């Protein structure tokens, strides 16, 4: 379930951007760790910042209004699929020149890394 960012800032869903900003500034001053030494002040301050980040961005605010949480890890999209096949045949082959560290490649600008010349 999505967090209620409106409740964290103490504003209604119909709040204007100016009302959101005023509520954020008031709460940020109240719960700032440099001002408030209560044990949970820092965590509360982080919640207030997250709520303002979401509600001050029109796209994120729209997501919240539709019931989503734009800061939840799943909001970034599905996790990449992990291949079940881990056999050596499925691994990408590499050449000896690709094993050269970047610092060594940078030492010889203009030279294309490749096999050592034979004599």
Automatic annotation (TrEMBL):
- What SUPFAM superfamilies would the database entry show? Chaperone J-domain (SSF46565)
User: Which Pfam families is this protein grouped with?
Assistant: DnaJ
Residue spans of biased composition, Low complexity class: 68-82, 89-111
Could you identify this protein by its name? J domain-containing protein
Task: List, for all copies, the residue spans of the domain called J.
Answer: 4-68
Example GO biological process: protein refolding
A GO cellular component annotation here is:
cytoplasm
A GO molecular-function annotation: unfolded protein binding
Organism of origin is Actinocatenispora thailandica
Family matches, as InterPro entries: DnaJ_domain, J_dom_sf
Q: Which region ranges are annotated with the description Disordered?
A: 68-119
